Amino acid sequence: MRVYSTVPGVSQRSLTQREKDALEPMIRVDQAGEVGAYYIYKGQLAVLGHDKKLGPILHEMWEQEKQHLERFNHLIGEHRVRPSLLRPVWEVAGFALGAATALMGKEAAMACTEAVETVIGNHYDDQLRELWGFKDHNQQLVDLSKTVAQFRDEELEHHDIAVQHDARQAPFHSVLKAGIMQGCKTAIWVAERV
Ligand SMILES: [Fe+2]
Ligand SMILES: [Fe+2]
Predict the structure, then answer these.
(1) Is the Cβ–Cβ distance between 33 and 75 less than 8 Å?
(2) CB atoms near residue 179 (< 10 Å)
(3) Is 155 assigned to a binding site?
(4) Is 11 helix (H, G, I), strand (E, B) or coil?
(5) Measured over all CA atoms, what is the biggest interatomic distance in the chain, rounded to whole angstroms?
(6) What is the pLDDT of residues 44-78, one digit of tens each?
(7) Which of 15, 59, 115, 161 has the highest Cβ tally under 10 A?
């Protein structure tokens, strides 16, 4: 895999219109996704926050989602991107998904995390490839690419933590996982646009 920090020199140019047009839906959907993730963990914590084993793990992942969201809040401002108009939907749907799966049990909560982080990890990976497609990166493209690469790695860590904590022992695991993954993909499609 290409290591981003080895790219020599940073162009002083500003973003082209084509780049701005490409970055706008990326930053919009990423902020919306981090809103969703923040609320999924919040919903899980509402149910499982006092669980001796899972509580601290969920708290730690929630803290990371907070940092992800703060970073994209900043990028929304910096790039003057219109945020998703559906933010209240992402908040409610995220919380409901997190709480509902947690109520089904610890394994189902972890299966939810496994599914969500699979989709988000792949989504960030696709974005990173798109960003690498731009030539002659300026500082903004360097910064965004670093952010996306870092967050992809952290989402995939969340995925691995969920699998280590028995995600695949959840009842109806494959159906649950497939359903949540499809929901996340649909949400991504919508949040890029609305
Ligand atoms: Fe995240
Ligand atoms: Fe995550």
Answers:
(1) no
(2) 12
(3) yes
(4) strand
(5) 54
(6) 999 999 999 999 999 999 999 999 999 999 999 99
(7) 115
Q: Which ligand is nearest to the CA of 30?
A: 1
Distance 159 CA to ligand 1 centre (A): 11
Q: Taking each helix axis as running N to C, give the angle between helix 87-104 and helix 173-193, from 0 to 180 degrees, rounded to the nearest 10.
A: 170
What are the C-alpha distances in Å from 133 to residues 2, 22, 83, 141?
12, 11, 24, 11
Per-residue pLDDT tens digits for 79-111: 999 999 999 999 999 999 999 999 999 999 999
Spell out the domains of the chain, with CATH numbers in brackets.
Answer: 18-193 (1.20.910)
Copy the structure tokens of residue 115. 């599914």
Cα(64) to ligand 1 centroid in Å equals 7
The reply, when asked if residue 34 is annotated as ligand binding, is yes
Q: What percent of the chain has pLDDT over 90?
A: 92
pLDDT value at residue 11: 87
CA distance 47 to 100: 9
- Judge contact between 107 and 171, C-beta under 8 A: yes
By CB atoms closer than 10 A (0-12, 13-18, 19+), residue 6 is exposed
Instruction: Give residue-wise pLDDT tens across range 106-146.
Output: 999 999 999 999 999 999 999 999 999 998 899 999 999 99
Q: Which of 78, 74, 80, 79 is nearest to 34 (CA)?
A: 74
